[in-house]
Amino acid sequence: MEIRKTIRRRQLREMVPLADSTIYDMEQRGEFPRRFALSPRCIVWDLAEVHAWLLARRAKPIQRAQHPDVTKRKSRPVKGQDRGR
Q1: How far apart are CA 4 and CA 45, in angstroms?
Q2: CB atoms within 10 A of CB 32
Q3: What is the spatial distance between Cα 26 and Cα 43, in angstroms, rounded to a whole number?
Q4: Which residues contact 26 (CB under 8 A, 6 or more apart)?
Q5: What backbone torsions phi and psi does residue 53 show, to the nearest 5 degrees?
Q6: At residue 13, what are phi and psi to the nearest 5 degrees?
Q7: pLDDT tens digits, residue range 26-64?
Q8: Cβ distance 12 to 53 under 8 Å?
Q9: Going edge to edge, which strands form the sheet with 6-8?
Q10: Would the pTM count as exceeding 0.85?
Q11: CB of 53 within 8 A of CB of 33?
């Protein structure tokens, strides 16, 4: 059995600049490596899994969200296009 290096939350934050809540949500959706407990008070991540995740994210471009349709807003709707010109 191979012993693999693990990292704690502080080291993970240095590698991945995301909020704890974002990382937790991504873990729940299966989009981020899962944490595991070494003891009741020591939570760690597998360094190799986090590194592989970073390489995969770097290789894949991020798809941006579409712009919202401002004509369908309930507050301050835009009535017509090209109105400011």
Answers
A1: 10
A2: 21
A3: 16
A4: 18, 32
A5: -65, -45
A6: -60, -35
A7: 999 999 999 999 999 999 999 999 999 999 998 988 888
A8: no
A9: 6-8, 42-46, 36-39
A10: no
A11: yes
CA 18/CA 13 separation, integer angstroms = 7
Structure tokens at 26: 């991504």
How far is CA 27 from each of CA 3, 41, 72, rounded to the nearest angstrom? 23, 19, 34
Q: Is the C-alpha dihedral spanning 48, 50, 54, 57 positive or negative?
A: positive
User: What torsion do the CA atoms of 56, 11, 38, 52 make, to the nearest 10 degrees?
Assistant: 10
